[in-house]
Amino acid sequence: MLQSFFTALYQALLGNPDPSSLIPVYRQSIFPGVGLTTFFVALGMALLFYVVLNRVVTTSFFKTQHWAIMLLLTAVLGAIVAWQQAAAAVEAQLAETGEELAVAQVSTLKRYLWGFTATNTLVAVLFFILCSFAVKSLSVSARTTPVRWPN
Amino acid sequence: MATLYIFGIGGTGSRVIRSLTMLLAAGVELQNCNRVVPIIIDPDALNGDKQRTIELLKTYQRLRQQLRPAPEAGQFFHTEIATLASMAATSGQERDPRVKETFEYNFSGMDEPLRDYLHYNSLPVETKHLVDLLFDPKSLNEPLTVGFKGSPNVGSVVLNQLMNSPEIEFFANGFGPDDRVFFISSIFGGTGAAGFPLLLKNLRNPKGNLAKKHLLNTAPMGALTVLPYFDLKSDETSSIDSNTFITKTKAALAYYQRNLPDLNSLYYVGDQAQKQQENREGGNQQRNDAHFVELVGALSVLDFMRQPAAVLQNDHHFYEYGLERDDKEVRFESFDPNQTRPLLGPALTRFQFFTTWLEHHFPATDDAVYAKNINLKNAWQTTPFFRDLRRFLFDYNSPEGQPISFKSWLRELRDNARHFVPFRLDEADFDKIVQGQEVKKGFFNSDTISRSYVRERLDKQLRKVTEAEAPGEFVRAFSEVMEDVVDAKVPGF
């Protein structure tokens, strides 16, 4: 289910993987792996902001601009996770099958990887926003950040 | 609901009521009553002290009316302050249109000299001679618009009109079985020295025409008589000479000794004069800075209300006040550790922390949970409650030269002599605010009173409520948080 959810999500935003010989590895490994990791990164960042920094300890890190910094960090982590996991999985796949890509295919692959990285950055942002609304009620000092709703 | 009626007579009466209002705002508890009805008696319509106190009382009343539910004991603005006219609703009386919705007794038409007030020219010749014997020509010819200028013999004649006024009639009609009366006046001036014994005598008069005489004759009645505590600068053009204060005091005390049999408690407070005030006969110019003696005077009201009625009734008590340490600069440490210090220290510190937070820390935390829960950022600028509160606390939007705020009151107490300096007034760091009781950071005490420390507690305490409930929730939460902070962190209380 996770596999089909993340495949549908990324393909809806990015289209089919290119070159087409790598479609199985994207669908079976990269999309669900990166998607799940990105979700946990976003959840972790949301918990760090709302629970650790604004419940467990007392800090002055509760404002909307602080939340925006966490959002930015999550986006950067999302990009790093996407690039590293996808590049490693593609490399491993090519090494395993012994397939050699033509120069034009390498260029296509890199373009798709950049697109995937950018897309996952947006997905990370989306996950962080969703996780924020899910966990903000657990917070003491940031439960109205970035907006008062629904608390 | 028991009510305390306070007759504040003359400029000193107004100034002591000002101090009392500040204490009540800070949550100092007035026991055995739920409501205070101040009635300021001063024929000087433009008196600066009176105008400032009335403005303060009105602001307090407006703030208090918007606190729903009403603050609990110990919380800011717990005690209700009401006008005499507004008592109609609770005492079951019909509203009397002659009794105005104000904190002052209405001396209308007091712009004539005493000579005309007495209809001197129409008096029989024998009476004229008696009047000439009692009053010098200057007293007879000066208009009464600015009061009695230190002449109690004038005041005692004019103030007799009080007893036939609709205000006193209304007061007597609404007087309840648990109600009490307290008089505040100075003994060395004109209005207060004359007005207090006159009022007492008439209220206790068993043959008088007032309603509920039986209640008025048994109700606990107390008084504060303020002895000289300041000097006035010498001014040959002024009718008031502070060199006569002691002589007048002696004469008045001799009178009081024989003529106040119906008073249950009499409080004396005074001090060696340490600073000369400007010599103003009255009017808008008579606006003396708040003085420590007035704060002590306000404590007498608290002490009077602390006593059970059974202890007061049919008995006479006399009190004086002594400082634990004769400091020229009075701090909380200067007070008796078992009486005044625990009574004033924590409450005033909580209120000063509240003021400090709103002045220095709220702008940096206006998007915190506590602020967003009541939409405080917007309400702070737009709603009448918060505009009044800002004015009450730190002179927001006050006309120039007419500050009524808690902060200006503390500033005046600090600058007057003897100095009352419990706080560093412009200090934003909570750890350093209370003089002599700083919160020290140590090896085992790293958690001082930081902005985050207070804000986190406010975030927990201040709940999300509707706009109408916001003032009550705001005051409740701040009262509780500041109580926690002061109890947990400030040493010496």
What does this structure look like?
The complex is a heterodimer of chains A (151) and B (493). Chain A is mostly helical and 151 residues long. In chain A, helix 1 crosses helix 2, helix 2 packs parallel to helix 4 and helix 3 runs antiparallel to helix 4. Chain A is elongated and about 55 Å long. The model of chain A has no long low-confidence stretch (mean pLDDT 94). In chain B, helix 16 crosses helix 17. Chain B is globular.
Task: Summarize this structure as a short list of keywords or feature phrases.
heterodimer; A: 151 residues; mainly alpha; 4 helices; 75% helix; 0% strand; B: 493 residues; alpha/beta; 7-stranded parallel sheet; two-stranded parallel sheet; 20 helices; 43% helix
Summarize the structure.
With 151 residues, chain A is an all-alpha fold. In chain A, 75% of the residues lie in helices and 0% in strands.
Largest interface (CB within 8 Å) is between: A-B, 14 and 14 residues
Q: How many strands of chain B?
A: 11
Number of strands of chain A: 0
Query: How would you name the oligomeric state of the polypeptide chains in this document?
Result: heterodimer
Shape of chain B: globular
β-sheet strand percentage of chain B: 5-15%
Question: What is the number of helical segments of chain B per DSSP (H or I, 4+ residues)?
Answer: 20
Q: How much helix, percentage-wise, in residues of chain A?
A: over 70%
What radius of gyration of chain B results from the CA coordinates? 23 Å
Q: N-to-C SSE series of chain A?
A: HHHH
Mean pLDDT of chain A: 94
Residue fraction in strands of chain A: under 5%
Tell me about the biggest sheet of chain B? 7 strands, parallel
Q: Quick one: biggest sheet of chain A?
A: none
Q: Report the uncertain regions of chain A.
A: none
State mean pLDDT of chain B (0 to 100 scale).
89
Q: Name the shape of chain A in a single word.
A: elongated
Judged by helices, strands and strand pairing, the structural class of chain A is mainly alpha
How many H/I helical runs of chain A? Answer: 4
Major β-sheet strand ordering of chain B = 3-2-1-4-5-7-9
Helix content of chain B: 40-55%
